[in-house]
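Provenance and format

Records in this collection were gathered into a single text stream. Each protein contributes a sequence line and a C-alpha coordinate line. The two records reproduced below are adjacent in the stream.
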Amino acid sequence: MLRAAALCLAFVATAAAADAPRLGPDSQLPVPRFESLAAPKVHGRRGPGMDHRIDWIYHTAGLPVQVLEESASWRRVRDPSGDRAWVRADRLSPARTVYVSTNLSPGLALRTAPRPESRTVAVLAKGVIGKLTGCVGSWRKLAVETPSGTQTGWVDKSGVWGGDDCQGVPD
Protein backbone atom coordinates (compact mmCIF):
# COMPACT_ATOMS: atom_id res chain seq x y z
CA MET A 1 0.00 0.00 0.00
CA LEU A 2 2.84 2.36 0.91
CA ARG A 3 4.60 1.60 -2.37
CA ALA A 4 1.42 2.36 -4.38
CA ALA A 5 1.01 5.66 -2.54
CA ALA A 6 4.63 6.60 -3.29
CA LEU A 7 4.16 5.78 -7.00
CA CYS A 8 0.97 7.84 -7.09
CA LEU A 9 2.71 10.78 -5.42
CA ALA A 10 5.61 10.55 -7.91
CA PHE A 11 3.12 10.56 -10.80
CA VAL A 12 1.34 13.65 -9.43
CA ALA A 13 4.67 15.48 -8.97
CA THR A 14 5.75 14.58 -12.52
CA ALA A 15 2.40 15.74 -13.97
CA ALA A 16 2.61 19.03 -12.05
CA ALA A 17 6.15 19.63 -13.32
CA ALA A 18 5.00 18.95 -16.89
CA ASP A 19 2.21 21.54 -16.53
CA ALA A 20 4.54 24.22 -15.13
CA PRO A 21 5.92 26.66 -17.71
CA ARG A 22 9.60 26.29 -18.44
CA LEU A 23 12.01 29.20 -18.73
CA GLY A 24 13.12 30.24 -22.19
CA PRO A 25 16.83 29.55 -22.70
CA ASP A 26 17.52 33.07 -23.98
CA SER A 27 15.10 35.35 -22.13
CA GLN A 28 14.83 33.34 -18.90
CA LEU A 29 11.10 34.19 -19.01
CA PRO A 30 8.31 31.60 -18.86
CA VAL A 31 7.45 29.79 -22.10
CA PRO A 32 4.71 29.84 -23.17
CA ARG A 33 3.85 33.47 -22.37
CA PHE A 34 1.89 36.30 -23.95
CA GLU A 35 3.54 39.39 -25.41
CA SER A 36 2.54 41.80 -28.17
CA LEU A 37 3.96 43.09 -31.44
CA ALA A 38 6.06 46.21 -30.78
CA ALA A 39 6.10 47.56 -34.34
CA PRO A 40 3.50 48.35 -37.01
CA LYS A 41 5.25 45.99 -39.46
CA VAL A 42 6.66 42.64 -38.32
CA HIS A 43 7.81 39.80 -40.55
CA GLY A 44 6.77 36.31 -39.51
CA ARG A 45 9.26 33.81 -40.91
CA ARG A 46 9.19 30.08 -41.47
CA GLY A 47 12.27 29.57 -39.25
CA PRO A 48 14.50 31.45 -36.81
CA GLY A 49 16.72 33.54 -39.08
CA MET A 50 16.76 36.14 -41.82
CA ASP A 51 17.45 33.42 -44.41
CA HIS A 52 14.02 31.84 -43.82
CA ARG A 53 11.06 32.69 -46.02
CA ILE A 54 8.57 35.32 -44.84
CA ASP A 55 5.18 33.65 -44.37
CA TRP A 56 3.38 36.57 -42.72
CA ILE A 57 3.66 40.33 -42.56
CA TYR A 58 1.87 41.63 -39.49
CA HIS A 59 0.65 45.23 -39.76
CA THR A 60 -0.77 45.79 -36.27
CA ALA A 61 1.39 47.05 -33.43
CA GLY A 62 -0.03 45.78 -30.16
CA LEU A 63 -1.37 42.53 -31.61
CA PRO A 64 -1.11 39.91 -28.86
CA VAL A 65 0.98 36.84 -29.59
CA GLN A 66 1.91 33.81 -27.55
CA VAL A 67 5.62 33.03 -27.38
CA LEU A 68 6.01 29.27 -27.80
CA GLU A 69 9.77 28.82 -28.32
CA GLU A 70 13.03 30.74 -28.26
CA SER A 71 16.13 30.45 -30.43
CA ALA A 72 18.80 33.10 -29.76
CA SER A 73 17.23 36.43 -30.82
CA TRP A 74 14.17 34.78 -32.38
CA ARG A 75 10.80 33.84 -30.91
CA ARG A 76 8.28 31.37 -32.33
CA VAL A 77 4.85 32.87 -31.77
CA ARG A 78 1.21 31.97 -32.27
CA ASP A 79 -1.16 34.74 -33.33
CA PRO A 80 -4.90 35.07 -32.58
CA SER A 81 -5.71 33.15 -35.79
CA GLY A 82 -3.64 30.20 -34.59
CA ASP A 83 -0.91 30.72 -37.19
CA ARG A 84 2.70 30.26 -36.07
CA ALA A 85 5.78 32.11 -37.22
CA TRP A 86 9.24 33.13 -36.07
CA VAL A 87 9.80 36.82 -35.32
CA ARG A 88 12.80 38.74 -34.03
CA ALA A 89 12.66 39.24 -30.27
CA ASP A 90 13.27 42.98 -30.67
CA ARG A 91 9.96 43.22 -32.57
CA LEU A 92 8.07 42.07 -29.47
CA SER A 93 6.97 43.95 -26.37
CA PRO A 94 6.20 42.52 -22.91
CA ALA A 95 3.07 44.76 -22.87
CA ARG A 96 -0.02 42.59 -22.39
CA THR A 97 -2.84 43.06 -24.85
CA VAL A 98 -5.87 41.00 -25.83
CA TYR A 99 -7.74 40.51 -29.10
CA VAL A 100 -11.54 40.45 -29.10
CA SER A 101 -12.28 37.03 -30.56
CA THR A 102 -15.98 36.60 -29.92
CA ASN A 103 -18.53 36.37 -32.70
CA LEU A 104 -21.34 37.55 -30.42
CA SER A 105 -23.76 39.99 -31.96
CA PRO A 106 -23.54 42.95 -31.55
CA GLY A 107 -20.15 42.35 -29.85
CA LEU A 108 -18.41 41.96 -26.49
CA ALA A 109 -19.76 44.10 -23.65
CA LEU A 110 -17.19 46.32 -21.91
CA ARG A 111 -18.62 46.78 -18.41
CA THR A 112 -18.05 49.20 -15.53
CA ALA A 113 -17.29 46.38 -13.07
CA PRO A 114 -16.32 42.70 -13.23
CA ARG A 115 -19.92 41.52 -12.98
CA PRO A 116 -22.39 40.51 -15.71
CA GLU A 117 -25.08 42.83 -14.31
CA SER A 118 -22.87 45.95 -14.35
CA ARG A 119 -23.52 48.73 -16.85
CA THR A 120 -22.18 48.35 -20.41
CA VAL A 121 -19.96 51.30 -21.39
CA ALA A 122 -19.04 50.07 -24.88
CA VAL A 123 -19.55 47.14 -27.21
CA LEU A 124 -16.33 45.79 -28.74
CA ALA A 125 -16.33 44.24 -32.20
CA LYS A 126 -14.27 41.20 -33.16
CA GLY A 127 -10.70 42.29 -33.91
CA VAL A 128 -10.49 45.11 -31.37
CA ILE A 129 -7.23 45.12 -29.42
CA GLY A 130 -7.15 46.33 -25.84
CA LYS A 131 -4.43 46.78 -23.26
CA LEU A 132 -4.83 44.24 -20.46
CA THR A 133 -4.62 46.15 -17.17
CA GLY A 134 -6.17 43.89 -14.54
CA CYS A 135 -7.71 40.53 -13.67
CA VAL A 136 -10.43 39.43 -11.26
CA GLY A 137 -11.48 35.81 -11.59
CA SER A 138 -12.67 35.27 -15.17
CA TRP A 139 -12.88 39.03 -15.83
CA ARG A 140 -10.23 41.10 -17.62
CA LYS A 141 -9.86 44.85 -17.29
CA LEU A 142 -9.07 46.56 -20.59
CA ALA A 143 -8.08 49.99 -21.82
CA VAL A 144 -9.30 50.47 -25.39
CA GLU A 145 -8.47 53.42 -27.63
CA THR A 146 -11.54 55.01 -29.25
CA PRO A 147 -11.96 58.15 -31.37
CA SER A 148 -13.13 59.99 -28.25
CA GLY A 149 -10.25 58.77 -26.01
CA THR A 150 -9.37 55.77 -23.90
CA GLN A 151 -12.29 53.71 -22.61
CA THR A 152 -11.69 51.33 -19.71
CA GLY A 153 -13.83 48.53 -18.45
CA TRP A 154 -14.21 44.82 -17.83
CA VAL A 155 -14.89 41.90 -20.20
CA ASP A 156 -15.38 38.20 -19.65
CA LYS A 157 -12.14 36.45 -20.64
CA SER A 158 -14.08 33.96 -22.81
CA GLY A 159 -14.55 36.74 -25.39
CA VAL A 160 -10.86 37.60 -25.84
CA TRP A 161 -7.70 35.88 -27.04
CA GLY A 162 -4.54 36.42 -25.00
CA GLY A 163 -6.16 36.86 -21.61
CA ASP A 164 -6.09 33.30 -20.33
CA ASP A 165 -3.55 34.07 -17.66
CA CYS A 166 -2.61 37.21 -15.78
CA GLN A 167 1.16 36.72 -15.83
CA GLY A 168 2.81 40.11 -16.28
CA VAL A 169 -0.40 42.08 -15.65
CA PRO A 170 -0.14 44.84 -13.03
CA ASP A 171 -2.12 44.22 -9.82
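Adjacent record:
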Amino acid sequence: MKFNITGFTHKGTEREMNQDRILIQNSIYESGTHNLLNEDYCFCFIADGIGGGPSGEKAAHYILEQINTKLIRSVNYDDDSLNEILNSINIDLFNEGRLNLDYFGSGSTLVGMMINESYFKIINAGDSQLWLFRNNIMTKLTEDQVLNSQQENSPITSYFGGKNQNLKLDFDTILRNIKVNDLLILTSDGLLKSLTIKQIKSILSNTKSLIDKTEFILHKALQSSAEDNVSCIFIEVINES
Protein backbone atom coordinates (compact mmCIF):
# COMPACT_ATOMS: atom_id res chain seq x y z
CA MET A 1 0.00 0.00 0.00
CA LYS A 2 0.91 3.62 -0.51
CA PHE A 3 -0.51 6.79 0.95
CA ASN A 4 -1.59 10.26 -0.08
CA ILE A 5 -1.22 12.57 2.91
CA THR A 6 -2.59 16.09 3.26
CA GLY A 7 -2.67 18.20 6.38
CA PHE A 8 -3.22 21.71 7.65
CA THR A 9 -2.79 23.70 10.84
CA HIS A 10 -4.33 27.13 11.41
CA LYS A 11 -4.73 29.50 14.35
CA GLY A 12 -8.46 29.86 13.66
CA THR A 13 -10.43 33.09 13.71
CA GLU A 14 -10.27 34.03 17.40
CA ARG A 15 -6.85 33.07 18.76
CA GLU A 16 -3.78 35.30 18.43
CA MET A 17 -1.43 32.32 18.26
CA ASN A 18 -1.47 28.77 16.90
CA GLN A 19 -0.49 26.38 19.69
CA ASP A 20 -1.03 23.34 17.43
CA ARG A 21 1.82 21.66 15.56
CA ILE A 22 1.62 18.86 12.97
CA LEU A 23 4.26 16.33 11.92
CA ILE A 24 3.88 14.85 8.44
CA GLN A 25 6.55 12.29 7.61
CA ASN A 26 9.80 14.16 8.36
CA SER A 27 8.54 17.75 8.65
CA ILE A 28 6.97 19.79 11.46
CA TYR A 29 4.60 22.62 10.53
CA GLU A 30 3.11 25.47 12.55
CA SER A 31 0.90 26.85 9.75
CA GLY A 32 -0.34 26.20 6.23
CA THR A 33 -1.58 23.25 4.15
CA HIS A 34 0.84 20.52 3.08
CA ASN A 35 0.41 17.69 0.58
CA LEU A 36 2.39 14.52 -0.20
CA LEU A 37 1.52 11.88 -2.80
CA ASN A 38 2.35 8.20 -3.20
CA GLU A 39 4.22 7.81 0.10
CA ASP A 40 5.65 4.40 1.09
CA TYR A 41 4.87 4.76 4.79
CA CYS A 42 2.89 6.96 7.17
CA PHE A 43 4.42 8.82 10.13
CA CYS A 44 1.94 11.51 11.18
CA PHE A 45 1.22 13.26 14.48
CA ILE A 46 -0.71 16.23 15.83
CA ALA A 47 0.28 17.96 19.07
CA ASP A 48 -2.21 20.45 20.50
CA GLY A 49 -0.60 22.79 23.02
CA ILE A 50 -2.84 23.14 26.05
CA GLY A 51 -4.43 26.58 26.17
CA GLY A 52 -4.50 28.56 29.38
CA GLY A 53 -1.04 27.30 30.30
CA PRO A 54 2.33 28.81 29.48
CA SER A 55 3.85 28.24 26.05
CA GLY A 56 1.66 25.36 24.87
CA GLU A 57 3.10 25.84 21.39
CA LYS A 58 6.61 25.22 22.78
CA ALA A 59 5.51 21.94 24.33
CA ALA A 60 3.77 20.84 21.12
CA HIS A 61 6.83 21.63 18.99
CA TYR A 62 9.23 20.01 21.46
CA ILE A 63 7.25 16.75 21.55
CA LEU A 64 7.14 16.46 17.76
CA GLU A 65 10.85 17.30 17.43
CA GLN A 66 11.69 14.52 19.87
CA ILE A 67 9.34 12.03 18.19
CA ASN A 68 10.93 12.88 14.84
CA THR A 69 14.35 12.15 16.32
CA LYS A 70 13.71 9.18 18.58
CA LEU A 71 11.18 7.07 16.67
CA ILE A 72 12.52 5.12 13.68
CA ARG A 73 10.12 4.72 10.75
CA SER A 74 11.18 1.16 9.88
CA VAL A 75 10.86 -0.26 13.42
CA ASN A 76 7.69 -2.11 14.44
CA TYR A 77 7.48 -0.97 18.06
CA ASP A 78 5.51 -2.88 20.66
CA ASP A 79 3.49 -0.95 23.24
CA ASP A 80 6.11 -1.25 25.97
CA SER A 81 8.88 0.15 23.77
CA LEU A 82 6.72 3.04 22.60
CA ASN A 83 5.63 3.75 26.13
CA GLU A 84 9.23 3.91 27.30
CA ILE A 85 10.35 6.28 24.52
CA LEU A 86 7.36 8.61 24.80
CA ASN A 87 7.54 8.74 28.58
CA SER A 88 11.21 9.69 28.33
CA ILE A 89 10.17 12.59 26.06
CA ASN A 90 7.60 13.62 28.64
CA ILE A 91 10.18 13.58 31.44
CA ASP A 92 12.59 15.64 29.31
CA LEU A 93 9.83 18.19 28.64
CA PHE A 94 9.03 18.37 32.34
CA ASN A 95 12.71 18.92 33.17
CA GLU A 96 13.00 21.62 30.49
CA GLY A 97 10.22 23.46 32.29
CA ARG A 98 12.07 23.25 35.58
CA LEU A 99 15.17 24.78 33.99
CA ASN A 100 13.19 27.56 32.29
CA LEU A 101 10.35 28.77 34.50
CA ASP A 102 8.74 30.63 31.58
CA TYR A 103 7.86 27.17 30.21
CA PHE A 104 7.13 25.44 33.51
CA GLY A 105 3.76 23.70 33.31
CA SER A 106 3.46 23.87 29.52
CA GLY A 107 1.70 20.84 28.10
CA SER A 108 0.29 19.27 24.96
CA THR A 109 -1.98 16.49 23.79
CA LEU A 110 -0.78 14.04 21.13
CA VAL A 111 -2.43 11.83 18.55
CA GLY A 112 -0.49 9.90 15.92
CA MET A 113 -0.52 7.17 13.31
CA MET A 114 2.45 5.03 12.26
CA ILE A 115 2.06 2.65 9.28
CA ASN A 116 4.89 0.60 7.81
CA GLU A 117 3.95 -2.23 5.45
CA SER A 118 1.68 -4.54 7.51
CA TYR A 119 2.41 -2.74 10.81
CA PHE A 120 0.29 0.10 12.13
CA LYS A 121 0.12 1.80 15.50
CA ILE A 122 -2.16 4.45 16.95
CA ILE A 123 -0.86 6.70 19.75
CA ASN A 124 -3.13 8.91 21.84
CA ALA A 125 -2.85 11.14 24.89
CA GLY A 126 -5.55 13.73 25.56
CA ASP A 127 -8.51 14.87 23.49
CA SER A 128 -7.13 15.09 19.96
CA GLN A 129 -8.73 12.35 17.88
CA LEU A 130 -8.31 9.78 15.13
CA TRP A 131 -11.21 8.82 12.86
CA LEU A 132 -11.67 6.28 10.09
CA PHE A 133 -13.76 7.10 7.01
CA ARG A 134 -14.62 3.79 5.33
CA ASN A 135 -17.57 3.00 3.05
CA ASN A 136 -19.07 6.42 3.81
CA ILE A 137 -19.09 5.69 7.55
CA MET A 138 -17.15 7.75 10.10
CA THR A 139 -15.78 5.72 13.02
CA LYS A 140 -13.91 7.23 15.95
CA LEU A 141 -10.82 5.15 16.76
CA THR A 142 -9.56 6.97 19.87
CA GLU A 143 -11.17 7.71 23.21
CA ASP A 144 -10.92 11.20 24.66
CA GLN A 145 -8.92 11.18 27.88
CA VAL A 146 -10.98 13.71 29.80
CA LEU A 147 -12.60 13.84 33.22
CA ASN A 148 -16.16 13.64 31.83
CA SER A 149 -16.67 12.71 28.19
CA GLN A 150 -20.28 13.95 28.33
CA GLN A 151 -19.24 17.44 29.39
CA GLU A 152 -18.02 20.01 26.88
CA ASN A 153 -14.50 21.30 27.58
CA SER A 154 -14.04 18.76 30.36
CA PRO A 155 -10.50 18.83 31.86
CA ILE A 156 -7.94 16.66 30.06
CA THR A 157 -6.60 13.85 32.24
CA SER A 158 -3.63 12.74 30.11
CA TYR A 159 -1.11 14.97 28.36
CA PHE A 160 2.58 15.67 27.92
CA GLY A 161 4.22 18.18 30.26
CA GLY A 162 2.23 20.02 32.86
CA LYS A 163 3.30 20.33 36.47
CA ASN A 164 2.51 16.75 37.50
CA GLN A 165 3.60 14.67 34.50
CA ASN A 166 0.03 13.59 33.77
CA LEU A 167 0.68 11.15 30.95
CA LYS A 168 -1.17 7.92 30.29
CA LEU A 169 -0.68 6.73 26.72
CA ASP A 170 -3.35 4.78 24.88
CA PHE A 171 -2.47 2.41 22.02
CA ASP A 172 -5.76 0.48 21.95
CA THR A 173 -7.96 0.56 18.86
CA ILE A 174 -10.92 -1.26 17.35
CA LEU A 175 -9.17 -1.09 13.97
CA ARG A 176 -7.79 -4.51 13.04
CA ASN A 177 -6.67 -3.89 9.47
CA ILE A 178 -6.22 -1.08 6.99
CA LYS A 179 -7.73 -1.31 3.52
CA VAL A 180 -7.28 0.41 0.18
CA ASN A 181 -9.61 3.45 -0.03
CA ASP A 182 -9.61 3.95 3.74
CA LEU A 183 -9.21 7.54 4.87
CA LEU A 184 -7.69 8.08 8.31
CA ILE A 185 -8.24 11.48 9.89
CA LEU A 186 -6.07 12.91 12.67
CA THR A 187 -7.52 16.06 14.21
CA SER A 188 -7.09 18.43 17.11
CA ASP A 189 -10.28 19.16 19.03
CA GLY A 190 -10.66 22.51 17.25
CA LEU A 191 -12.12 21.00 14.08
CA LEU A 192 -15.11 19.40 15.79
CA LYS A 193 -15.84 22.64 17.61
CA SER A 194 -16.40 24.20 14.17
CA LEU A 195 -17.89 21.42 12.03
CA THR A 196 -20.15 18.47 12.74
CA ILE A 197 -19.29 14.91 11.78
CA LYS A 198 -22.19 15.07 9.32
CA GLN A 199 -20.61 18.10 7.58
CA ILE A 200 -17.17 16.48 7.42
CA LYS A 201 -18.63 13.23 6.11
CA SER A 202 -20.52 15.10 3.39
CA ILE A 203 -17.32 16.78 2.17
CA LEU A 204 -15.31 13.57 2.25
CA SER A 205 -18.00 11.70 0.30
CA ASN A 206 -17.61 13.77 -2.86
CA THR A 207 -15.35 12.77 -5.76
CA LYS A 208 -12.85 15.62 -5.56
CA SER A 209 -9.15 15.07 -4.84
CA LEU A 210 -7.92 14.73 -1.28
CA ILE A 211 -6.22 18.15 -1.38
CA ASP A 212 -9.45 19.78 -2.59
CA LYS A 213 -11.46 18.13 0.17
CA THR A 214 -8.88 19.13 2.77
CA GLU A 215 -8.82 22.75 1.68
CA PHE A 216 -12.62 22.90 1.64
CA ILE A 217 -12.84 21.47 5.17
CA LEU A 218 -10.46 24.18 6.39
CA HIS A 219 -12.45 26.83 4.50
CA LYS A 220 -15.73 25.65 6.05
CA ALA A 221 -14.22 25.50 9.54
CA LEU A 222 -12.99 29.10 9.27
CA GLN A 223 -16.28 30.17 7.76
CA SER A 224 -18.01 28.64 10.80
CA SER A 225 -15.92 30.89 13.06
CA ALA A 226 -13.21 28.51 14.28
CA GLU A 227 -12.70 29.87 17.79
CA ASP A 228 -9.91 27.38 18.57
CA ASN A 229 -6.78 26.47 16.64
CA VAL A 230 -7.65 23.81 14.06
CA SER A 231 -5.38 21.09 12.67
CA CYS A 232 -6.01 17.96 10.62
CA ILE A 233 -4.04 15.30 8.75
CA PHE A 234 -5.83 13.15 6.16
CA ILE A 235 -4.20 9.83 5.22
CA GLU A 236 -5.62 8.17 2.11
CA VAL A 237 -4.74 4.53 1.54
CA ILE A 238 -4.13 3.85 -2.16
CA ASN A 239 -3.01 0.97 -4.34
CA GLU A 240 0.64 0.30 -4.97
CA SER A 241 1.91 2.23 -7.97
